[in-house]
Structures are given as C-alpha cells and as structure tokens.
Amino acid sequence: MSSKINDPVIPEFIVFSIGDSRKPSTWSNMPFFFTRTLEQRGHRVHHVNIAPSRFVQLLFDVPWKVFCRLVGRQTRFTYIRSRMNRHVVNAKIQRALRRYPEGHCVFMTFSFATGNNRPYTLFCDQTFEQHIAYFDERKPDSLEKPTIIEERRNLKEAALIIALFPDLATSLRRVHGSKVKYYGNVVNMDRLNADRNVLLARKWEGNELVFIGSLKYKEGLERLAEAVEILNGMDRPELTVNVIGMDRRDLPSAPRNMKFHGYLDKGNPGQKRTYFDILERSRLFVNPNPKWAAFSASCEALFLYTPVVIFPYGEFARTFGDINKVGHALGSTRPHDLAQAITTLFQDERAWTEKAIAAHEATKAMSWENYVNSYLSDLRAGEAS
C-alpha cells in the first residue's frame, strides 16, 4: 500500500463519475482505483455519482432505440446525451461544488465540467466525437452535435486533461497544448506476489484460454466460436474456453467446451476470486474484435503472464509496440487463421513462455501508484492553479 502524505496544495478532491466511483464495476474499475489510490496517499475524496436514474434512462432509451431500428437510423444519442439529463447533472455538480468548496474537481468523462471558474481536471479514454468517427466511421448527427460542442468547451476550459491513450493525447495536444497529459496506462488490479514459475507451469498445464468482453464484443466471440469448432476437429487435447462478460444465451450455438461465466463483479469477493483464478490458469487471452479488444482486461491478462491473441488496433499497438512480442497479432478475420494462431502458441512451450514473460514485463510498471504520483506532481507544479 502507498505511504500516506499530507499534501498542502491539493488536500482533497471531488471526483465526478458516471457511476459510483467506490464500486469496481464503474467504467472498467478506473474511478475505483483512481480514488482509492488518492485516499491511500492521504487525500480526502468526495465521490459524486452523476449517472442518470436507471428508471428514467430505460424509460427514454428503450422506445428510442426501437424507433431508431425501425427507421434505420444510426445514432449514439441516448438519454445520457439529452438536454434533460444535462440539466439534471449540472444541478448535481453545482450542489457538490457548494457542499465541498475547497476540493479540486476531477471529471472522469469529457462530457461534463464545473461550468464556472473553479479549476478542474478531465480524465477519459476518448471524446464522443472520436468515438463516433472510429467505431461508426461517420460524421455526427444533429442530436449528437450538442454533446460534441459541450465537450470541446469543457476541454478548452479544463486546467488539466488526462488522456488514457497515446493517440488520444496526440490529437488533444494539437488543440489544447501542454495541459494534455499522458502517463501511460494502468493495470486495474491489486498487485499479486505470485511465484512466476508456479504460475507459468499452471497455465501451460491447464489447456485453457479466456475471452473477456461484454455483448458489444459479440462479433469477436462468434469468430472465436467458429475457430473452436475447427480446433475441436483436430487431433489434439480439447481446450477449455472461459467466456467472461457474456452468458450462453448470448451465443447458444457456442461449442460445449466454451464455458460462460457471465459478468464477474470485482466488488463481489467470490466473483473476484473466480475472475482472477481464470486469468491465472489461462494460457492465452483471445479477443478477435477488429477495432477494440477489452483493453483493460487485456492489460490484466498481460500482467498475469497471459499472451494475447488480438488484432493490432491502434491504441494497443501504440501502447505496447510489436504485439507479437507479447502474443500474436491477428491479420485476418478468418476463423481458420485464428485457430492456427491458437494452435501454434499451444504447441510451442518455449515460444509461449518467452511471450508470457514479456507480457508481464510490458505491464509491471503500469501501477496506479505511479499513475497518481505523476498526476499529483503536475498539480503541485501549478498546472491546475
């Protein structure tokens, strides 16, 4: 655990997040580890949840999404991007500012800010505009544009901007200059003192691989299921595929050796143990989604000596360099090629061991202590005064 300090410059923080920052389930564990590390360093943290009411959100989003499907409209506009929600959230923010007049504000989103002269930090992984351009390959529609305009204003007025990824940092620096900070990335887990040789032996003997991803990664899971069918037809020991984040009902045609565990909440001690036990015994992390492959989960896998089989999507490749050093970079969507990559790594113990060790080495410095130290250093230097 980090040693506590008494920081005379920034003694306390108000952290605004879409979801409860005290729960690991919020945004891939990022707010949880960020705020916990600040608290371990002796800072007081006020947690402000600016997520909308679940009931109101569903009341708005369900009929809206049905309508969009019926008319063939592609949009990422939902209740959370609506004027009504923005009014509610801004009221929550102003109440928090009055309640905590001295705390430095951190928004773990680019979509909201203080709206006054009080300094604040923005911390996120992608702007709404970049998200639409990258994943949808289109221009924003008229309903999406107000959020984009708001985010641009928030970014302009922020004292500091923390970019979680290198490409994001580069693009934001072109507009906002040196106040954009990139501290590398982080592994969202408590540090384990596992014996390397014992862990490597367990993985090699286990004949298992893991897929981690919610329903939005279903395309990758479908590819993996096809590859597993090919592998099942080979003259080789049958492997076990652990699927975390989806249930069998999401892919009922999946082969029987694919075991579905659903969403595992790290805030639940039993589910947390199951999650890390699967990672510790899995020989490979496989997510053949072309544009994104559960970045945070892949970092956890790498730290636990688990080579990855993924497409070399931009932010991952820019973070880690040559993916083939820590796994296998897919170049094709063909299930046969995915099956071949898995087979190759399962057959060559020496090559697999080298990649497993390199995977851990690539992530061992990605600690929240280092990350928060870098952030606090910038605050003390007067960047957010």
How does this structure look, described?
- With 385 residues, this protein is α/β, with parallel strands linked by helices.
- The chain has 14 helices and twelve strands.
- Strands 2-1-3-4-5-6 form a six-stranded parallel beta sheet, with helices on both faces. Strands 9-8-7-10-11-12 form a six-stranded parallel beta sheet, sandwiched between helices.
- Helix 8 packs across helix 12 (335-347) and helix 10 (295-303) crosses helix 13.
- The protein starts with 11 loop residues before the first strand and ends in a 5-residue tail after the last helix.
Return the structural class: alpha/beta
Low-confidence stretches: 1-6
Would you tell me the overall average pLDDT? 94
Q: Which percent bin holds the helix content?
A: 40-55%
- Please state the overall shape, judged from the principal axes of the Cα atoms: globular
